[in-house]
Design brief:
By secondary structure, the protein is of the alpha+beta class. It has helices spanning 2-15, 17-54, 64-74, 88-98, 129-140, 152-194, 196-204, 209-248, 260-283; strands at 57-61, 80-86, 117-122, 145-149. It has a 4-stranded antiparallel sheet with strand order 2-3-1-4. The radius of gyration is 30 Å and the shape is elongated.
């Protein structure tokens, strides 16, 4: 029975090669667009996580002695990866380096006008907004603390940005999924109508509806499967090309590609859309 369905599917594809390719390319375009947004979303999250790990918590103190005492206490905490003491002189040198073309902004600033500080780095698993906020409040209670600066705004912006992107991704996914199902559905329906006489004969011979429709289901699944494979390949080519351009421009960024689990999920998703389209096409 399976061999009959596969032969029938191959016969249908071979006799409608032109329309099949047109349908395949259209589905590939839809899935490729959706895949591009998924790829950008994944890289957005990874990039934000890298940025937040590079930004330390900075604590300013009234005196160097208070900063050193606090450093000894903070280093004992399990959540801490490193604590660096920054003297007023070091801060001034940094400012001069950062503002080397705008030294006029540093007029009147010397070692006495700057405060000693600690730069605190957290272990990766503790980089979240709740812990940052709690930890920052505890630092403010330490003797001699003037100000605590931590990347809370970055988190808030990242969370808002990611939520907006998730909504956008969801809406685009719904639209392109419906479009893909609609394309496959119409294609299968037209193909189904061409086989009217053959299907009528099969019904007279006692063939069940499931038996008659199965080759069309397989056809739809193959359309979704091949289109999703092509989309993944195109996305891989794009990521490879993009990273080459970035490397040539000497920029410190790399577009990460989908991992194996995400790739397989995307291919299965495309195959399911193909099946749904063929199912609706044979139900019309």
């Amino acid at each position: 029975m399976l061999s009959f369905w596969l032969k029938k599917t191959w016969h249908n594809i071979r006799n409608n090669l032109g329309p099949q390719l047109g349908c395949l390319l259209t589905i590939t375009l839809a899935l490729g667009t959706f895949g591009m947004f998924i790829l950008l979303g994944i890289n957005f999250v990874q990039e934000v996580k890298q940025w937040q790990r590079k930004i330390p918590i900075i604590v300013f103190f009234n005196t160097a002695e208070q900063a050193q005492l606090a450093k000894e206490k903070i280093e004992k905490r399990n959540q801490i990866s490193h604590v660096n003491y920054v003297s007023p002189k070091q801060s001034l040198l940094r400012l001069k380096k950062w503002l080397k073309d705008k030294e006029i902004l540093l007029e009147g600033i010397d070692d006495n006008t700057l405060l000693p500080s600690l730069e605190i780095g957290l272990k990766t698993e503790f980089y979240n907004l709740n812990f940052l906020t709690t930890f920052a409040h505890s630092l403010k209670k330490m003797p001699g603390v003037v100000e605590v600066v931590y990347p809370s705004q970055l988190f808030l912006l990242a969370v808002k940005g990611w939520k907006f992107f998730q909504i956008l991704l969801f809406l685009i996914g719904i639209f392109l999924s419906i479009a893909t199902i609609f394309i496959v559905s119409n294609f299968v329906y037209l193909h189904f109508q061409k086989k009217k006489e053959e299907i009528a004969i099969m019904r007279l011979l006692g063939a069940t509806e499931g038996f008659i429709r199965m080759p069309f289901f397989i056809e739809g699944i193959l359309q979704g499967f091949i289109a999703s494979l092509l989309s993944v390949f195109i996305l891989w080519l794009f990521a490879h090309w993009f990273n080459r351009q970035i490397a040539e421009a000497s920029l410190h960024f790399k577009l990460s590609f989908l991992n194996l689990k995400q790739t397989l999920g995307f291919i299965v998703f495309g195959s399911i859309l193909g099946y749904l389209g063929s199912f609706l096409g044979t139900k019309k």
